[in-house]
Design a protein that fits this description.
Blueprint lengths: L3 H8 L4 E8 L4 E5 L2 E7 L9 E5 L2 H15 L10 H13 L5 H15 L10 E4 L3 E7 L5 E8 L3 E3 L6 E4 L4 H7 L7 E7 L13 E8 H12 L6 E5 L1 H13 L10 E5 L6 E4 L4 E4 L11 E5 L17 E6 L6 E7 L2 E7 L7 H10 L10 H17 L1 E2 L1 H8 L3 H13 L3 E4 L4 E4 L9 H4 L4 H11 L4 E9 L3 E10 L4 E3 L2 E4 L5 E5 L3 H6 L7 H19 L9 E10 L2 E10 L2 E8 L5 E6 L3 H17 L3 E2 L4
Parallel strand pairs: 3-10
Antiparallel strand pairs: 1-11, 2-3, 4-8, 4-10, 5-6, 5-9, 6-7, 7-19, 12-17, 13-14, 13-16, 14-15, 17-18, 18-19, 20-22, 21-22, 23-24, 24-25, 24-26, 26-27, 28-29, 28-32, 29-30, 30-31
Helix pairs in contact: 8-15, 9-11, 13-15
Keywords: Metal-binding, Zinc, Zinc-finger
Organism: Spartinivicinus marinus
Protein name: SWIM zinc finger family protein
Length: 625
C-alpha cells in the first residue's frame, strides 16, 4: 500500500476539471449621459438566462459586487519564504539573457501556468435567476471563503419577464474597476443574458475560455455549501458590533505563538459575546439575547476574512451568525435591505489537511459508485418539484414528494453534494441550482488525493488503526501516537502527531518510507491521515454517545466563567488513574493540582463529579468540539 511507484502514478493523474465557457462578449459597464448600464454576459453553452431591470440602490450594488470580487480573489494561505522561486528566476534570467522582453514574458507566464494556474485567474461566479431573487455565488482561491449575494427582485424595476436558470458570467478585474463608476445621482441598469445590447466592434467579439478548475476547489465549493445543512446555533449582531470586531482586528496584528480565534460565548437569556484572542477583547451584542436552550462556548477561525466585508458595512442593517461548532464552518448572513450577503468561513484553507479531515467526517460522502437507487429516485422527485417552483422549504418539499424525513434529508444532502441543489441558509429554503452544465465526475471529487482514499480505506477496516496513546500537553496541545496495520505491506507503521488546541497539526512523523524521504513537503502520508481520522471519529463518538461518559479513560475539558473581573478558566484532565486540575484567570499562569487514585473507576468518578460541580456554578464548556 506504500508502493512509491503506485503513489507517483496516482498523483500524476489530472487534478482538475476542464470547463468550456463561451460568452458573446465581455461583461462591461457603459455610461451615457446621466445613466450607467451593467451588462453581464452569460455562458452561451448553457440554457438561456435573462434579466433586465433598473437598480434602485446603485451604491449598495456597487459595494456588494466589490465585496464579491474581493472574496473570490482572496488567498489567505500561508506563504513561506521559498528560495526555489528565486533560484528559478536567476536560472531563467541567465537563459533568457539574449531573448527579447516579449519572449521572456511568455516564458514566465508559461511557467506560472504550469506551476500555479490560479495565480492570475479569477474563477467566474455562478449566477442564478430565480422567481424571487438574483443570486451570485463565488468561492475564494484558497478554498476558505464562500459567498452568496442574493438581490431581491424588489430592488429592481424590471423590464419584461425574467428567464430563470443558472449560468456563469464573465467577472474580470476590468469589470470590477468599471463598476466603480456607479454613482447615487446616476441611474443604473442591470442586464443579465447571453446576448445583451449590441456593441459595434470590428471582428468577432466572442470570448472563449477553457478553464481548468482544480478538483480540490470544486470539491471545497460543494462541501462548504453542503455544510449549511448541518445542525447549527444562531444569534444576531448589530452592524456596530461587527464594526467593533473589524476595528479591533484592523488596529491590532496577530501575535505569533498566541491564540488567534474568535470565541463566541452563548448563554440563554443573555446577550451573545464575541471575545477576540489573545487580547481578550469582549464585544457584547446589542441586537438581542441568545434564544438557545444550552450554554456553550464556540471558537471560530478565519476571522481575518471578515475584513473583506468592510466596504459593505455602511449598508448592513442586521447580522445573523450560524455556527455548527468549534473549528467548523460558520455562516455570516448580512441583511442589506433588499440584498443579502451570506459569507461562509471554513476556518481553514486547502493546506490545512488536519482540520479538513475533521470536517469530512461530518458530511456523508457522495460517491459515483453508490448504487442507492432509493436515494437517486428521491432526488429525482425533489428536482422535478423544484423545476417548477425553483425553490421551496423542507416542509413544502416533504408534503409534495411525500418522502419520509430520513429519505428527504439524505436526498437533499446528495443533491447538494452533486451540485444540483443548494441550501439558502439566509431564507431557509432549498433552490434548484445546477453548478455545471454536465454532470460532475464524482469519482474525482470523492477524495482529495490517493493518499486520502487509502486512509479512508484503512479507517473502514476493522482494527487496522489503533490509538496507542493520547498525551495532553498543557499550553501546547495533544500528542497522539498510533499503530496502523497494512496487510498489503505485511507490516505496521507508527504515525505520531502533535495537534494544537485549534485542531492544527504542528508536528508529525511516521515510520513509512514516504515520510522518511519527503517528510511533509508533499503532504501527509496515508498513515498520518488515517490516524487523524480515527482520532476525530473517536472524539465525535465521545460527544454524541452519552454512555461513553461512564467508560472514558482519557479526556480533557476546559470550562470558563466570566464576571466583572474577567474570565476564570478551569481545566480538568483525566489520564487513566490520574486527574489534573488547572485553574486561574485567563491569560495568566494557571495553578496545578494532581490527584492519583488506586483505580481508573475512582479517578473517573472524581473527574465527572468535578465537572458537574463546575456546571452547577455556571461555568461554560469551552472545550474544542
Amino acid at each position: 500500500m506504500s508502493n512509491d511507484k503506485t503513489t507517483t502514478e496516482a498523483e500524476s493523474s489530472p487534478s482538475h476539471t476542464e470547463i468550456a465557457i463561451e460568452y458573446t462578449g465581455q461583461s462591461q459597464v457603459t455610461t451615457k449621459d446621466a445613466s450607467a448600464e451593467l451588462s453581464l454576459f452569460g455562458n452561451i453553452k448553457r440554457d438561456p438566462v435573462s434579466l433586465v431591470g433598473k437598480v434602485k440602490q446603485p451604491m449598495a450594488l456597487r459595494e456588494a459586487l466589490a465585496t464579491l470580487y474581493a472574496i473570490v480573489g482572496s488567498d489567505y494561505r500561508y506563504k513561506p519564504k521559498d528560495r526555489t522561486a528565486y533560484q528559478a528566476y536567476r536560472r531563467m534570467r541567465n537563459e533568457s539573457a539574449n531573448k527579447n522582453a516579449w519572449q521572456a514574458q511568455q516564458d514566465y507566464f508559461s511557467w506560472l501556468l504550469r506551476n500555479d494556474p490560479l495565480a492570475f485567474l479569477i474563477l467566474d461566479p455562478v449566477i442564478s435567476v430565480q422567481p424571487d431573487q438574483l443570486m451570485l455565488e463565488v468561492f475564494s482561491k484558497d478554498e476558505g471563503t464562500y459567498a452568496n449575494l442574493a438581490i431581491d427582485l424588489s430592488a429592481l424595476e424590471l423590464e419584461g419577464t425574467p428567464t430563470c436558470g443558472t449560468t456563469n458570467i464573465d467577472f474580470s478585474e476590468a469589470l470590477n474597476d468599471s463598476i466603480q463608476q456607479f454613482r447615487s445621482y446616476r441611474d443604473a441598469t442591470l442586464r443579465v443574458g447571453q446576448a445583451t445590447v449590441a456593441v459595434e466592434v470590428e471582428g468577432d467579439n466572442t470570448l472563449e475560455k477553457q478553464i481548468k478548475v482544480p478538483d480540490s476547489w470544486l470539491r471545497g465549493f460543494l462541501q462548504v455549501q453542503s455544510a449549511a445543512m448541518l445542525p447549527s446555533d444562531s444569534f444576531s449582531l448589530a452592524p456596530m458590533d461587527l464594526y467593533n470586531c473589524l476595528r479591533q482586528l484592523r488596529m491590532n496584528a496577530d501575535v505569533k505563538g498566541k491564540r488567534r480565534g474568535l470565541r463566541v460565548e452563548l448563554v440563554p437569556g443573555e446577550a451573545p459575546r464575541l471575545v477576540l484572542e489573545p487580547w481578550e477583547t469582549v464585544i457584547e451584542s446589542s441586537a438581542g439575547i441568545y434564544q438557545g436552550k444550552q450554554a456553550k462556548v464556540v471558537r471560530l477561525w478565519g476571522r481575518r476574512r471578515l475584513m473583506l466585508l468592510k466596504r459593505l458595512l455602511p449598508f448592513i442593517e442586521s447580522v445573523d451568525v450560524h455556527i455548527a461548532g468549534s473549528g467548523l464552518p460558520c455562516f455570516w448572513v448580512l441583511h442589506c435591505g433588499p440584498m443579502t450577503l451570506t459569507l461562509g468561513l471554513t476556518g481553514f484553507t486547502a493546506n490545512d489537511w488536519s482540520q479538513a479531515c475533521t470536517f469530512d467526517l461530518l458530511l456523508p460522502r457522495a460517491s459515483a459508485t453508490d448504487k442507492n437507487d432509493a436515494g437517486n429516485k428521491a432526488l429525482k422527485k425533489i428536482i422535478q418539484h423544484l423545476s417548477n417552483s425553483w425553490f421551496a422549504s423542507r416542509d413544502t418539499i416533504a408534503t409534495t414528494t411525500k418522502l419520509k424525513q430520513s429519505e428527504l434529508i439524505a436526498a437533499l444532502q446528495l443533491g447538494c453534494q452533486h451540485g444540483q441543489l443548494m441550501y439558502d441558509i439566509a431564507h431557509q429554503v432549498y433552490r434548484l441550482r445546477p453548478l455545471t452544465n454536465t454532470p460532475l465526475d464524482l469519482s474525482r471529487l470523492e477524495f482529495r488525493n490517493q493518499r486520502e482514499r487509502k486512509a479512508h480505506d484503512l479507517l473502514a477496516r476493522k482494527n487496522a488503526i489503533t490509538i496507542s496513546s493520547e498525551n495532553r500537553i498543557y499550553g501546547t496541545g495533544t500528542e497522539i501516537t498510533g499503530k496502523v496495520e497494512v496487510n498489503e505491506d505485511k507490516r505496521d507503521y507508527r504515525p505520531q502527531f502533535l495537534m494544537s488546541e485549534e485542531g492544527f497539526v504542528s508536528k508529525a512523523e511516521c515510520s513509512c518510507s514516504l515520510f522518511r524521504k519527503q517528510g511533509l513537503k508533499a503532504g501527509p502520508c496515508e498513515h498520518l491521515i488515517a490516524l487523524r481520522l480515527a482520532f476525530a471519529k473517536r472524539e465525535i463518538q465521545r460527544k454524541n454517545n452519552s454512555k461513553s461518559r461512564n467508560t472514558v479513560t482519557m479526556e480533557t475539558r476546559t470550562y470558563s466563567r466570566r464576571d466583572k473581573q474577567g474570565e476564570h478558566v478551569y481545566q480538568l484532565s483525566l489520564d487513566h488513574k490520574r486527574v489534573n486540575c488547572r485553574w486561574g484567570r485567563a491569560g495568566s499562569n494557571l495553578r496545578l493540582q494532581r490527584f492519583q487514585f488506586n483505580s481508573v473507576a475512582m479517578a473517573r468518578a472524581d473527574y465527572l463529579s468535578r465537572i458537574d460541580k463546575l456546571i452547577s456554578k455556571g461555568y461554560l464548556d469551552a472545550s474544542a468540539e
